[in-house]
Amino acid sequence: MVNLTIDDKQVSAPKDSTIYDAAKLNGIKIPILCHDKKLKPFGACRMCLVEVEQMKGRQIPACTTPITEGMIIRTDTPDIIKARKLVLELLLLNHPLDCPVCDKGGDCDLQNLTYDYQVNSNRFVDSKFQHEIDYNNPLIERDMNRCVLCGKCVRICDEIVGFGALTFIDRGIETKIGCEFEKGLNCEFCGSCVSVCPVGSLLARPFKFKSRFWALNKQNSVCGYCGTGCNLTLGVKDNKVLTTIYDENQGFHKGQLCVRGRFGYQFISSDKRLTKPMVRKNGVLTESTWDEALEVVAGRLKGGTDVAALATARLTNEEFTLFKKLLEKAGTKNFDHSAGYAHAALTDGFARSFGTSASPASILDVQKSDLLLVIKTDTYETHPVVGFEINMAVKNKGVKLTVLSDKRGKLSKLPNAKTLVHTPGSEIVILNALAKAILDAKLTDGSASIIPGLPELELSLAAYGADAVYSQCGISAADINKLASEYAAAEKALIIFPVGQAYSGHTAELATAAANLALLTGKYGKEGCGVLCLSEKNNSQGAVDMGFYAQNGSMNALQILDACTSGTVKTLFIAGENPLNSYPDKDKVKSALNAVDFLVVSELFMTETAAMADVVLPVCSFAEKEGTFTSADRRVQYVKPAVRKGIQTKTDYEVFSDLICCLGGQIPPSTAAQFDEIAGRVPGYQGLSHASLRINSAFAPVSITPAFVVPKVPAPVTTGQGMLAMVTGSALYHSGTLSQFGEGSMYVCPEAYVELSRTDAAALKIADNDLVNVSSNAGKLQLKAKVTARMPSGVVFVPYHFSAAPVNTIWNGAAVTPVSLSK
Amino acid sequence: MNPITPILHGMKITFEHLFKKPVTLQYPDERPKVAQRFRGLHGLKVSHNKAKCVACYLCPTVCPAKCIRVEAGEDANHDKYASVYEIDMLRCIFCGYCVEACPVDALKMTGEFELANYKRSDFVYSKERLLEK
Ligand code: SF4
Ligand code: SF4
Ligand code: SF4
Ligand code: SF4
Ligand code: SF4
Ligand code: FES
Hints:
The structure holds two protein chains of two kinds.
Chain A: E1 2-6, E2 9-13, H1 19-25, E3 49-52, E4 58-61, E5 72-74, H2 78-93, H3 109-116, E6 140-142, H4 152-159, E7 167-169, E8 176-178, H5 192-196, E9 202-204, E10 217-222, E11 231-237, E12 240-245, H6 259-263, E13 278-281, E14 284-287, H7 290-301, E15 307-311, H8 317-330, E16 335-337, H9 344-353, E17 371-375, H10 379-382, H11 384-397, E18 400-405, E19 418-421, H12 427-440, H13 454-460, H14 470-473, H15 477-489, E20 493-498, H16 508-520, E21 530-534, H17 540-545, H18 557-566, E22 571-575, H19 579-582, H20 586-595, E23 598-603, H21 608-611, E24 615-618, E25 627-630, E26 635-639, H22 652-662, H23 671-681, H24 690-695, E27 698-699, E28 724-729, H25 743-748, E29 753-757, H26 758-764, E30 771-775, E31 780-788, E32 795-799, E33 817-822
Parallel strand pairs in A: 1-5, 15-16, 15-22, 17-18, 17-20, 18-19, 20-21, 22-23, 23-24, 28-32, 29-31
Antiparallel strand pairs in A: 1-2, 3-4, 3-5, 6-9, 7-8, 10-11, 11-12, 13-14, 13-24, 25-26, 26-27, 28-33, 29-32, 30-31, 30-33
Chain B: H1 4-17, E1 42-44, E2 46-47, E3 50-51, H2 58-62, E4 68-74, E5 80-88, H3 97-101, E6 107-109, E7 124-125, H4 127-130
Antiparallel strand pairs in B: 1-6, 2-3, 4-5, 5-7
Bound molecules: iron/sulfur cluster (SF4) (5 copies) and FE2/S2 (inorganic) cluster.
Residues 223, 225-226, 228-230, 257-258, 260-261, 383-385, 735 of chain A line the site of one iron/sulfur cluster.
C-alpha cells in the first residue's frame, strides 16, 4: 500500500494504482471521459486533470499517473475547474449539441459533465462537424459528429474483443473514428463499442428512438442464450424489453456481452410469441383454453408407461426438477435433453474421469492459467464472452495458447497463438497421442501414479505414437511432442472445449481423453488448471445437475425418437426443444413425430416441431420467470421476471404444477421452496437459496474423484474421391434455434451457408455467395457459399440453427459427413 | 338599529347596479377576452409544414400529471419526429411545465378553453387535433 494525500485527506491505495484509482477507492470523485477500468490507461481527454504538489502544482491527468508515496494531490482547485471547463468548451465547440434528438441524452457523459461544470456558453466560435452519418448498418449507427475521440471504442474492440474493426482515421481536427478504407462496419457486432461510447456517436440502431434512458425500467437478468451465463440488464418499458443496458460492474465479464446477448433480445417481446394454448381438432390446431388443453394432456400422461419427454436446456433448475417429478408421477423414466449426446461429455465422460458430471475448472481460470489448450476454434463462436477472456489472457497476461482444430478461426489470430489444424474428427487420436508423448517422455506428475487405471491407459495408448498418428490426424510428431512437453511443463494449464448439438464429435470419449491429459500431469483441482467443458445452452449444466437425462438404462433422446417410430412411445412431451431442426437426421425425426400418437409441445413460438403437435402450450422466456440457471462452469444464478408474462401464457413451472395436480398429485411448492429441496440434494448446491442468490450468484463447487479411462476412438472417416468433409457447428451470431427469433442476430446472419476453402472453391469454380447444392448420403441442401481463408482444403463448415435450411437434412449426427458440392 | 335601514341599504346597492356595466357574460353569445398568457388547450407549433416537435420526451418526463404520451419515429431523412403525440386533457392540470421544458419551443398553450365533450376518449387529444391550425 502507498500512502498519499488527496484533498487534505490521508489515504492509501495499492501500489499499482493510478491517482484516479486511489481517489475512487477512497470515495473522492474525479471526472473522467476517456478512461475505462477495463481498458489500459489512455489519457486522451484531460477531464481528469489534478494538481500534484511535488510536481510544482502542474496539472496532470489522474487516469494515467501512477501514485507514489507521499504524493499530495488536489482535485478541485479553481485552476483545475477552469481547466476542465476549457476542455469541455473545446469539446463542445464542434459538437452538434443535438441532445433532444440524440439517443444518448440522459445517459451521456459529455452532457452530464457539461451540466456539472455549468458550461453554458462558449468563448470560441467554429463550425460544426459535417461527417457523414452511417445509417445503413442494421445494428450500430455511427455519427462521428458527436465523437469526442476518447478512443474507448477502438480500444475495447482491440483489447477485449480482439477484432480491431475501428480505428482513428485522419489527423488533427479532421480526426474521426472509422473502419478500414472508410467502409461500413462489418464485424462481430458484439456492441462493446456502443456500450462504452460516452456520447451518442455509437448507438444501438434497433433501439433507436424507442425510449429515453431514464424512462427505462432496468431489470437485472442472466442471458438466455449460451452456457457462459453472462449477466445482463434489460431495458423495459411498457412491459416490453426494448434493449440491453451496459453495466460495467455486472458479472465476471464486467458487462461485456456478445452479439446474441446484446442484440438478440427481441424474441422476448416478439409479436410472434404464442399467446394461447392450442389443441388439434379435426386435424387443425385451434385456439383453446388452458383447462381444456391441460385436461387433454393430463389424460394422455396418466398411467404413462408409454410416455417420454424431451426438454430444452433452457428451462430453469426448478422446472427441470418439477418436470422430472411430473414424469415420474405419470410413470415414466424416459426423458432427456439436448439430443442425448450434447451432454455426454459431462454425464458420461467427466462422470467417469472426474467422478462428477461438471467441469473441474471455471471461466475465471482462463486468465489465471499459463497455457490454454483449446479444442476447436469454434469455442469463440459458441461462447464468445469466454473467447474475450481467452483474448485478454493471451494479450494482457501472456498466456500461451494452442488451438487444436479442424479449421482456423478467430482464436488462431491471437498473438503467438499456435493452431494445429488436423483432419476433421481426429481430436481424440491427437489427445491420445499427447498422453502417450507425456508418458513416454516421463513428464507425468507424481500424483498420477495413484490414480486408478494408469496401467490400462498406458497399454491402450501403445498404438498412439506421435509418428504413428500422423496419417490419421495430419499433425506432425514434432508438433505433438512439443505441445505435450509444453503442456506438461506449464505450471498451470487449462483445456477448453465446447459441446453442443452441432458438435456431435465432442463426445464422452473426447472428454475422457482430455481429462487423461490433466490427470497425467496433475493439472486439475488447482487455480488456472483443469478441463473446462463449455456446455451449449444457458442451463445445460443445470439440466445435468438436476439429473434430467437418461440414466440407469432409461431411453436417451435418440432412442426415444426411435421408440416413437416403433410405437413403444405413444405420448411425447417436448418442452421447448425443436428436434425437427436441431436433432440429426430430419427425416428420422419427422417420421418419429408423425408416428407418435400424441405430441404435446410447450414453446415460445410456433416452431416446425410445435406445428406438428396435438397440443401446443404457450410458455415463458427467461425474462418472464423466476428460477435459477447454472452456467457451464457451475455458477448458479437467479433470475426474476423482468416483464409480466402474457395473460394466457404460463411458465413451464406452472404448466408442470398444474399437470401434477391434474394427475392427482399435491400442489407443488413455490419455486423458492423447490430450490431449497434441490439445494438439499444436489452435490455442490448445499447452502444456496433464492434469497442468497438474489444478492450474489455462487459457484457450486465440484469435488473430484479422478480415474484414468481408456477412451474409445471412433473409426476415422474416409471421404471418398471428389468428396469434402463436412463439419457442423455454431455460427457466432446464433445459439441453438432460439436466436432465429432474435432480430439482431438475424440482421447480421440471416441464413445458413456453407463455408469452404479458397482452393476447393477454385477447383469447383464456386464464388462467394453462389448458391451451391450440398449433397450427402442423407440428402441434399441448397446453401450460399462463403469462401474463406480459414478453412483447410477438403473441409467445409455448415452451421445449424436455421429452419429455412436445416443442416439435418444432410447430416445424420456424424462428426464428419462426406459431402459433394455442385453449383 | 331600525330594521328598515339595512333593507334600504340593500335596495340602494341593487339600484346602483342597474346603471353599471354588467360583469356577467352572455356566454356563448358573448365571448370572454382571454389573456395572452392564459393556459388553455395545448398547441403543437408548425414550421416548414411539419410539427416542430422532435420527440425528445422532455414534456412527458416533466409532466406532473403524466398525461402526455409521445412515441418517436424516424422519418425518411433519419430525423426524429413524434409519430404519436397525445395529451389526456382529463388529467392535465394546465401547469404549463411541458411548454417550459420543450427545448425546441414546439409547444404552446392556446386560449382555447372550451374542452367539454361527450366521451372520455374524446379528451385524449391526438397529434392531429393538437397541431396549430
Ligand atoms: S452526445 Fe451527449 S451531448 Fe452530444 S448530443 Fe448526444 S446527448 Fe447531447
Ligand atoms: S461491435 Fe464489437 S466487434 Fe464490432 S466494432 Fe464494436 S466492439 Fe468491435
Ligand atoms: S465513437 Fe464514442 S467511444 Fe469511440 S472515440 Fe468517439 S466518443 Fe469515444
Ligand atoms: S450468448 Fe453467451 S456469451 Fe453471449 S452474452 Fe449470452 S451468455 Fe454471454
Ligand atoms: S400543462 Fe402540465 S399537466 Fe398539462 S400536459 Fe403540460 S405538463 Fe402535463
Ligand atoms: S479520463 Fe483521464 S485523460 Fe481522459
